[in-house]
Amino acid sequence: MDDPQENENPQELQRPGDEVEVESEWRKQAWTQLEKLRQKSPLVQCITNFVSMDLMANVLLSAGASPAMVYSVDEIPEFTPKVDALCVNLGTLTPDWLPSMKLAAETANKEGKPWVLDPVAAGCSSFRLKACIELLGMKPTVVRGNGSEILALFKGSVDHTSKGADSRHDSADAVEAAKAVALLTGGVVAVSGAVDYITDGQRVVGVHNGVPMLQKITATGCSVTALIAAFIAIDPVHVFEATASALSLFGVASELGMKVAKGPGSLRMHLIDLLHGLDQGTVLDKVRITEL
Question: Which InterPro entries does this entry report, sorted A to Z (predicted)?
Fold first, then answer.
């Protein structure tokens, strides 16, 4: 996610009419999906790390969804069939958590519920990579990761220069890998970075919303993954488009927050407030999604 150019930039007026029209359709769709999310308040089960639980839950609530941090293997058979979507995040992975993740993914598939995989630091260890590959084989509806994580899934090998959850690669470096992973799972793959790229293996769009300061706030990536789960819950027929909308709107909220924030701490607070307060005029003006 990057700093947006203002929509009133003179270059905007020089773009081909069909390109402007396509971007306008993406904006309208993002608003329609956000309205639907607020109306339906989908229940999103998050099996995630302890670092991200607070921000992830608050991002979901501020957008209009209902979070449930249920991860006990004993609850999943009864609880997961009730949810509208599942988010699986491998941030603080342990052998005790992996069975819960697999059972929840299996249950979601059985019940026809969409689920999102966040392969945090996929290439940093053999244990973590093996878990990610196993979950990838369970056909997540969406995979969302940074450039290094998506490349690790594609290569299937440990990155001995890994910096954990921090990416060593630009999002653009992982687009072809993302397309290959999407074809493997039959789902959608999103690569976060200066530009967020979304692909279903054939189509590719870029999301040009966000601010660099998000990198200084822990769990923002985890939280946008959960937001993707909420969006695909309310529009499972348009997973590709819903994924792009979630990433873009999260980025728009951060842009607005950065105008009043004094640093990472206050941006975190404003991000939650401004995601909650997004209105139609702002969405139609600020969403920047382009087809590649």
Answer: Hyethyz_kinase, Ribokinase-like
User: Which domains, ranges and CATH numbers included, belong to the chain?
Assistant: 16-291 (3.40.1190.20)
Kindly report the pTM of this predicted structure.
0.91
Residue 168 is predicted with a pLDDT of: 59
Q: What is the 3-state secondary structure (H, E, C) of the chain?
A: CCCCCCCCCHHHHHCCHHHHHHHHHHHHHHHHHHHHHHHHCCEEEEECCCCCHHHHHHHHHHHCCEEECCCCCCCHHHHHHHCCEEEEECCCCCCCCHHHHHHHHHHHHHHCCCEEEECCCCCCCHHHHHHHHHHHCCCCCEEEEEHHHHHHHHHCCCCCCCECCECCCCHHHHHHHHHHHHHHHCCEEEEECCCEEEECCCCEEEECCCCHHHHHCCCHHHHHHHHHHHHHHHCHHHHHHHHHHHHHHHHHHHHHHHCCCCCHHHHHHHHHHHHHCCCHHHHHHHCCEEEC
